[in-house]
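Please check this protein record:
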Amino acid sequence: MVSPALKVNTLFAAPFAEGHLVPCERLNRELEELFLARENDENRNPTPSHIPQAEMYESRFNLFRWPDPCVQELRRFMLEAVGRTVMETTTLRAEDMARFKFNNHTWFHITRYAGSFLAHNHPLASWSAVYCVRPGTRPAGHPGSGVLRFLDPRLGADAYLDPANASLHRPYSLRPLELQLTAGQVVVFPSYVFHEVAPFYGPDLRITVATNCWFT
């Protein structure tokens, strides 16, 4: 007989934080104009981790060093989101955080028709975040166009599936997390989590900013 005091614990969970910049229209318009104006070989990442696609432009990782006001405004918003996530998921206090040096690599992606990004993680950082400047049009017949997909970090958890574990509730679910980003949305997640971007089939552009953060 099962005790009525049975308690289910959520263990080995990966924290994800989501938020929105409201309003975001003016900032996103300025960011888009700036990124498109500087989408050139001088600002292109010279050492990409994947074979670059013609449909996907990746900038250098120094975006938050740009002095442009719109970039610095985004920097404040994204790094504050990361800092708040750290505060809410750890035992650190504000005075602890104040003693840390906040390091980051930050870049932007401009994606055109059929552009995608292979599954990867960021093993040299502790927290990562993605901000959506422009989600792009999701055409009919392509519901997964441009989806940001996070893969389950529990290696082997889906090695055996039967009716008793194939439909677990979130956060126990063995399904990947798929997000159709919206303009102004930010997602913060542990850098060890593998993620990918599904092929984008919109007739326009998909523009995002990504940052990897570590503390010393």
Notes: The chain has one domain: 17-41+54-153+166-215.
